[in-house]
Design brief:
This protein is of the alpha/beta class. 33% of the residues lie in helices and 23% in strands. The chain is built from 17 helices and 26 strands. The strands form six sheets. Strands 8-9-10-11-12-18-19 form a seven-stranded mixed β-sheet. It has a five-stranded mixed β-sheet with strand order 1-2-5-6-7. A five-stranded parallel β-sheet has the order 14-15-13-16-17, sandwiched between helices. Helix 6 (192-202) packs parallel to helix 7 (219-231) and helix 15 (483-499) runs antiparallel to helix 17. The longest helix has 20 residues, at 508-527. The radius of gyration is 28 Å and the shape is globular.
Length: 541
């Protein structure tokens, strides 16, 4: 029902295999929350039977939850070299890199976990070393694609292993569990080579400083920007923590070799504008990322000025539209030219291509693999339904469209959803994990929408007020400009106290409840709000 935040489980012979453990990002309805992940309670209760976690690739929505949730699972992790290198850096940030057992599996490698025989199949995506998994059991073979596309010229890393996919079909495939992100997009997704050619046409037109924003994880895009910049007489500086993290992991894994040296960001201001290119994080308008800080004159080393340009070599991820539009507008106010894939496509150029298969690529994969069952995943409802329909058109006999928590029996017998297991979401709130529906987050949302007020009453042993009531409501009232409203509310509070019988006045809970109700009613009458109200009763004997 969504794109991202992956956690997949395969069960056989009493054992479970986990594939991917990712995050998504907080939205406006989750104030103070930046990272959200699946609630793994179902498998945590069965962790003795969890044989391992296999990571298909290194994107955040496939491995980002590992540092948060591994302690609950305590299972071995399997990943290819680049994915392992990036994961180790993330674990080091939390100081747990020595605790987590990571087994590095070479590309096209095979290994066995409990009753599951696993083989990696090389595909292409917008990050190095994306793998499909062949999962063999006595009941049949499953191909779990992970994220993929068919790129004949990925520029970094190997291309997809068509021969292995064709041979797999001859061996027999029970089910294919497959990426649905672009199942409504006709044609092909395009190649990274197209992007390099597009940037070679677009970049030379700019004469001042240029920044390029892209997904840091797209190592091929990083190499393209560095190569194209060199051809245009520019030197590249990485701006943003994740750019440096990905660059280091890529070089450790053998990528990004034989490139011109990078410029330290602290040296950028000393170079002529026409000789510098800034490769920045923040293509999605993230408030803490480099580009947002640059656009708001809050970056400690980098400044962009009127006449400079920002090229967005990226797509707009659904849900980020408002943040990206705000970033565009902030740059426009500084008279910085904003260039996107949409603005140059009319000229016949591409400066971004998707990492996911469009419909022609999906059809090609079904022709190669020929599964008996299609299980669309990694997509919103419309993507899943479109994918299932396409699979049937490709002569796949059966499809099952799942939801979060669906327990699907693939074999024996007809495939079907036989149960729904507990599922949910956990939010990172500071240094703790909270369920999305926790009272704390519900109260925070309510406070953001309705505001809050605190009433302080000082009473004697008999419950009589010893001083005027005090009201604090900084997110609702200006205590100076709204003095008349404040006075009316204080009158309501004291009147509610006076209406209490003597016995009730000696009961702190009764006093607090009467005042709370009166305060909420007063706010509703005067400003149309029903805030969260806390009443503090201080009794002086």
């Amino acid at each position: 029902g969504e794109i991202g935040m992956n956690l997949n489980l395969y069960g056989h012979a009493g054992k479970w295999l986990m594939i991917d453990l990712g995050v998504t990002f907080g939205e406006e309805n989750l104030p103070g929350i930046e990272v959200v992940m699946p609630d793994p309670s179902f498998i945590v209760e069965r962790k003795e039977d969890l044989v391992g976690l296999v990571l298909t690739h290194a994107h955040e929505d496939h491995l980002g939850a590992v540092p948060y949730l591994w302690d609950k699972l305590r299972c071995p992790i399997y990943a290819t070299p680049f994915t392992a290198a990036l994961l180790r850096r993330k674990l080091a940030d939390d100081g747990i890199q020595e605790e987590v057992p990571i087994t590095v599996v070479e590309m096209s490698g095979s290994f066995t976990l409990g009753p599951f025989e696993i083989e990696l199949v090389t595909l292409t995506h917008s990050i190095p070393e994306p793998n499909a998994l062949i999962i063999r059991t006595p009941c049949g073979t499953v191909l779990h694609t992970g994220d993929w596309k068919l790129d004949d010229d990925p520029l970094v890393g190997e291309t997809y292993d068509e021969a292995r996919l064709r041979r797999l079909a001859d061996e027999g495939v029970l089910a294919m569990v497959c990426d649905s992100t672009n199942a409504v997009v006709p044609g092909l997704s395009g190649s990274e080579l197209d992007v390099r050619e597009g940037l070679q046409k677009v970049l030379p037109r700019f004469k001042n400083r240029v920044a390029v924003a892209c997904f840091a994880s797209n190592v091929a895009r990083l190499e393209t920007v560095i190569r194209v910049a060199e051809a245009c007489g520019r030197r590249v500086s990485l701006v943003g923590r994740s750019m440096h993290r990905i660059h280091a992991a890529a070089r450790e894994s053998g990528y990004l070799q034989d490139l011109p040296p990078l410029v330290d960001v602290r040296e950028v201001e000393y170079l002529p504008k026409e000789e510098i290119l800034l490769l920045c994080t923040g293509s999605q308008g993230e408030r803490r990322a480099a580009l947002w800080r640059i656009a708001h004159d809050a970056h400690p080393e980098v400044v962009l000025e009127a006449g400079d340009a920002v090229i967005f070599s990226s797509r707009v991820i659904p849900g980020n539209e408002k943040d990206i539009a705000a970033l565009y507008n902030s740059l426009a106010k500084l008279e910085i030219e904003v260039v996107t894939d949409e603005t140059v496509r009319g000229e016949g150029h591409s400066i971004h291509v998707s990492g996911h298969p469009a419909r022609d690529e999906l059809a090609q994969m079904y022709q190669w693999v020929r599964p008996q069952i299609a299980i669309p995943v990694h997509g919103e409802a419309r993507h899943l339904e479109a994918h299932a329909k396409l699979a049937l058109e490709c002569q796949v006999p059966m499809t099952v469209v799942p939801e979060n928590g669906s327990l699907i029996r693939l074999a024996p017998g007809k495939p079907q959803i036989v149960d729904h297991v507990p599922h949910g979401r956990l939010a990172v709130d500071g240094n703790r994990l909270l369920p999305i529906d926790s009272p704390i987050l519900r109260a925070r949302r309510k406070q953001i929408l309705a505001g809050s007020a605190v009433i302080s009453l000082v009473v004697d042993a008999a419950g009589e007020l010893l001083a005027d009531a005090k009201l604090s409501a900084v997110d609702l009232l200006d205590l100076q400009a709204d003095r008349n409203i404040v006075d009316e509310l204080l009158d309501d509070i004291e009147a509610a106290h006076e209406r209490l019988r003597p016995k009730a006045r000696r009961d702190d809970e009764a006093v607090a409840e009467a005042v709370r109700i009166a305060t909420r009613r007063g706010f509703n009458r005067l400003i149309g709000k029903k805030p969260i109200v806390e009443v503090q009763v201080i009794r002086v004997d």
